[in-house]
Amino acid sequence: MFRVFGQLSWFFKEEWKRYTIAIILLIIVSFIDLMPARLLGLLVDDFQLGSLTLERGAMYAGILLLITFMSYGLTYIWMSKLFGGALVVERKLRSKFMNHLLRMDVPFYEKRKTGDLMAQGTNDLKAVSMTAGFGILTLVDSVVFMLIILGAMIILVDWKLTLAAVLPLPLIGIMISILGIQIHARFTKAQEAFGSLNGRVLESVAGMRVIRAFRKERQDENKFNSMSEDVYKRNLEVAKIESFFEPVVNIVVALSYVIGLGYGSYLVFAQQITLGQLITFNVYLGMMIWPMFAIGELINIMQRGGASLQRVNQTLSVDQAVKEPKQPVATEDSASILFDQLSFSYPTSELNQLEDLCLEIQSGETIGIVGKTGSGKSTLIKQLLKYYPSGKGVLTVGEQPIGKQTKSQVREKIGYVPQDHILFSKTVRENILFGHSNATDAELDEAIRISAFEQDLDFLPDGLDTLVGENGVSLSGGQKQRISIARALIANPPILILDDSLSAVDAKTEAKIVKMLREVREGQTTIITAHRMSAVEQADQIIVLDEGHKAELGTHKELMANQGWYYEQVQQQTRGMEQEVR
Which of 288, 465, 481, 538 has the highest Cβ tally under 10 A? Predict the structure, then answer.
């Protein structure tokens, strides 16, 4: 049960001063809180004996007032230290969690749902935070404060009465052993259900246009209601187990009161204790209610925190699929690329997606990569970006093997425009400057010109300061593509990769962009994957892939002369364009 504290030992070592001060002050306040009950007992005894004077009563009142101010001041300090520590551990774990997500590569995200990761970064870390704050409080109160009260009852009242009154306490221990494991298991399932619900909400929001287009609003609503009901039922199962604690505590407290009053009254009549001591004893019994409840709260918090930390640690324990080299090599300024008999298959696949691929790209060349769907075009690009572990064969970038370079070394040479254009909920300007935050206005204007986005600025309500909305929802597909191209261009990378990034623009705009890229990127390498052959006509080399193999290689003229797959596609697309014109 207390394993969660061991897993957080690194944090307690870092913040040992904070927690030492908080626990010491909490214990001091526990002793101070015993004094009013003792004063009440002495007051009753003085009244019964007739020795209560005005001066003595004023002394009791003064002491009680002093105790109140001391308790208030010290409580403020220990609460700020203890619960401040809970916020610190939440911040540290959240930063650690986010940094881990930023380090992870593509295979990690292929196996995990975004909604579940969000649940871990929010609800689970909040449960861990509760463990480091309220959990420490309940631990001290359920153990130390209870022992202090028991010690006071033994020393200040009577040990026999104390022993009799605490006889029901083992009932709580029995309930802890029975219910603790169930809370852990059920809370884990509840958090998993919440993660799935998060994922469903994300999918619904992102796919709202499709849902409305196919009139699936009610179906999606019913699915959400079903998943929400599942989360409700799983949390209800947790609540049912938690609800067993309070009745047990009430039974234990009631039994303790019955024993205390009954046996205590007998001891008063037997003149073994005074009436004031009995009153003090019963006040102490009342004070034991919270420590008994704290035991139940402690188990609840420990099991919740343990289950949540276990889920978070499982994510944090996942290592990167693409390992960094222990001794990275320095690379040349050259933007040359070499594929030498490269073969690659995805971790979940038994077949090679690239097979004995050979391709040499010199610095300054423009390369076109075409092929039918599933031929390996995007897989080739992912190998260049080190998204997956290197396959068999040789792949060099900047005249050095890519396996001996860090991911940062490789990617700082590359400007990448992916097929799925991700834009942030910021302005057009901020989205473009994401590629180079310190770019000048001239560089920004140049990137916009090359990407042929100038013509669209007049139609945007605030020009470059127009908010694009969630993932560019207010823009067309072509506008999003050209903003993504401008974002990559503004960094002026030695290698620019356009992964089917001209599919949403018209043929005229496409030709304009390709022409400007060849003009301004002289001496730099450009790689264009496309389904429209017109996007690669001007390339220095065009490689045709077929099921991961190099089917054809040459210039546009050479491939047209070969009359292979490339020739057939050009003819077919040309006829299609002619029919559209008609």
Answer: 481
As assigned by CATH, the class of the 88-316 domain is mainly alpha
- Ranking 112-121, 198-207, 357-366, 385-394 by mean pLDDT, the lowest is 198-207
The superfamily in CATH containing domain 337-581 is P-loop containing nucleotide triphosphate hydrolases (3.40.50.300)
Strands, E assignment, 406-534: 414-417, 495-499, 525-529
Q: CATH 1.20.1560.10 spans which residues of the chain?
A: 88-316
pLDDT in tens, 195-235: 888 878 877 877 777 787 778 888 888 888 888 898 888 88
The pTM for the full model equals 0.77
In the chain, the amino acid numbered 244 is F
Q: Convert 201-234 into a string of H (helix), E (strand) and C (coil).
A: HHHHHHCHHHHHHCCCHHHHHHHHHHHHHHHHHH
Q: How many CB atoms lie within 10 A of CB 321?
A: 15
Instruction: Using alpha carbons, select from 260, 294, 67 the residue that is nearest to residue 172.
Output: 294
Nearest to 514 by CA among 555, 559, 482, 477: 482
For CATH 3.40.50.300, the residue range(s) in the chain are 337-581
